[in-house]
Amino acid sequence: MKALITGANGQLGWSLQQSAPQGAELICTDVAELDICDASAVDAFVAQHKPHLILNAAAHTAVDKAESEEELALGINAQAVGNLADAARAHTARLVHVSTDFVFDGVSGVPYKPSDTPAPVSAYGRTKLAGEQAAGEGALIVRTAWVYAPKGNNFVRTMLRLMAERDEVRVVADQIGTPTYAPDLAAALWALSAKGITGIHHYTDSGAASWYDFAVAIQEEGLAAGLLSRAVPIIPINTSDYLTPATRPHYSVLDKSSTFAALGGPAPHWRVNLRKMLQEIKTHG
Question: Residue span of the signal peptide, if any (predicted)?
């Protein structure tokens, strides 16, 4: 099986490479190797390499910047997805596309199902929803949230740095979602692909947390792992105390029940995966 991975230098792209099935032939690209916003380049690349599977881990993920550069975000998050979908159809490949909890408005008090009506409240959310539509019915679309990995820039590494540098940290406590360990998400994408599953599905770790809860756990587990030498006060604040250009959903927990059923069981709890990630950092840096 030959698989094309776009966005290969990112957290998820790296994780897809690490968890690829044995014997898979990987074609790993980022913008330097393939500009997925260039439709003709995408078609020519897919025609040349003839992958069986296209895993799109490329995205414009700068949520606040997307408010001022929505056209750029739309190009990467939607138009490029359409290019990949067109090439997949033309050359008999299957497309796997990763989307986000930000397609929802966050006003629900219960986990969002894949069938719930999207209502994005940010430019990032709008462009990612457009990407889902561009991927088309034959694609596997997996919505996820709060992704982090041992490699790359993410909330966990930022918190570890701030807790080492500052006498206190302030973290939003009224946005609720679920952290997602990128290596497990990558393994789920490979497994769902192998089953030939299509349509929209949800995947995150199990459980739910606020960003404040996540930060508290990072400090506790970081101290236990020896990655932090001291505890600092973590101050819970409201979203209104930390204004950003983009509106965030206050509640974006995703219902993963159908995905977990397809995979044969639930994902680990987010705190279990946080502990695993910190051990990876301790061992490999």
Answer: none
